[in-house]
Amino acid sequence: MKQLLLPTFVLLFCATVPSFANGPLALHPDNPHYFIYQGKPTVLITSGEHYGALLNLDFDFVKYFDTLAADGLNSTRIFTGVYVEPDTAFNIPNNTLAPKPGRYITPWARSDQPGYANGGNKFDLKRWNPEYFERLKRFMTEAVKRGIVVEVVLFCPMYNETMWDISPMKASNNINGIGNVALNQVYTLDQEAALLEIQEEVTRKIVRELNEFDNLYFEVCNEPYFGGVTMQWHDRIVDVIHETERTLPKKHLVSWNMQNGSAKVENPHPGISIFNFHYASPPVAVAMNDGLNKVIGLNETGFNGTGDDYYRNEAWEFILAGGALYNHLDFSFTVEHPDGTFILPASTPGGGSVALRKHIATLKRFIESFDFIRMKPDTACVEGNEDYTLSEPGKQYAIFLRNSEGKTLRVTLPPGEYAANWLEPVRGTTVEGAKFSHTGGVKVFQVPDDFTKGVVLRVVSVP
User: Fold this and answer.
1) 210 shares a domain with 231
2) pLDDT at residue 108, as a whole number
3) Are residues 419 and 367 both part of a single domain?
């Protein structure tokens, strides 16, 4: 066995598409289930911190980006600072979304009046904070240097009173008297006109400030299925994004965080191009929504222990089911450990480790070794196994099997000349198979004996 080496022919599959070479992240024109970025077919695969890298002044995002880039990961997810958490939220140790008093930065400036519930002066929702926008642009600049695409999450529901009590949008925390509503009325069109106006204004401001960058897409709201968020409000913010960009040079994709688990997308806003799910294992949401011809993503994981195995398998399954975006929520990134080396207590509501990031990076390299734009989910070519397969029939096959010990794979292939090799996802090692001629029908492959924690089979046609 040896470390995974991608074949030289991979370079042929990365041919640029000139019209997209210098534009923002977009849906690929030949297969909109995937992205195109900097002229190349793209999947976004990462293991990122808990969304506080921008709003938490103590977080060293340069060291964080260096860590992602060193592992070959290419995305992160951030909250804009409109929402913040108390340090008790969700039992997350050293939560980056819970800055220390005085270390929380938002788009809005502080006033000269004391009384903010989480320390310091109240906010002035009618005045922008130049320091915030300078940090935002530095953040994006450092990300783009390292090939990292940023999911910019504009809003988040108030899950309980502890979140609403420290929100700048609550009337008691700002000098404008805006936000005299209950926590489940924050994101509606019919409660407080002044609050809606503030939400639209901050959306326009962030969209304008970020227009110069290619390495981003906007997500309207994290988990809008909680906290009283209405679809009418959600659609209005989508409209605001597109209305704002109408007169700007660049146009960016917009995401709808659709549901936990799975759901069939019904009557989506036409301005949405990415449909993100949380905790989407098994990845049935991908097949359910294939007909949308848009990107399906899994942009938050967790609540399955702190070990690596579940999240590694989840990533392989989702991408080989046809997903184009996987973001593992990695709690090993903290203010004290921006390089992701924090050892998680058993009570942490999710995983994250140095080793897991290596595993996820192996997946990214593997999928990028194919001309994946030409591939589609294939539920028929492998017999009798619980597999996830992408294929371009007769040319290329990527097959993942979670439970592999002692098994064979029976794969139906057209007649042709092929080469195959096995990949073990934990160690990132391969077993090279010999080239073979096939007359058509079922080809039997024996799984290597020591591949016991998942196995991947790669089959490609050869001259």
Assistant:
1) yes
2) 98
3) no
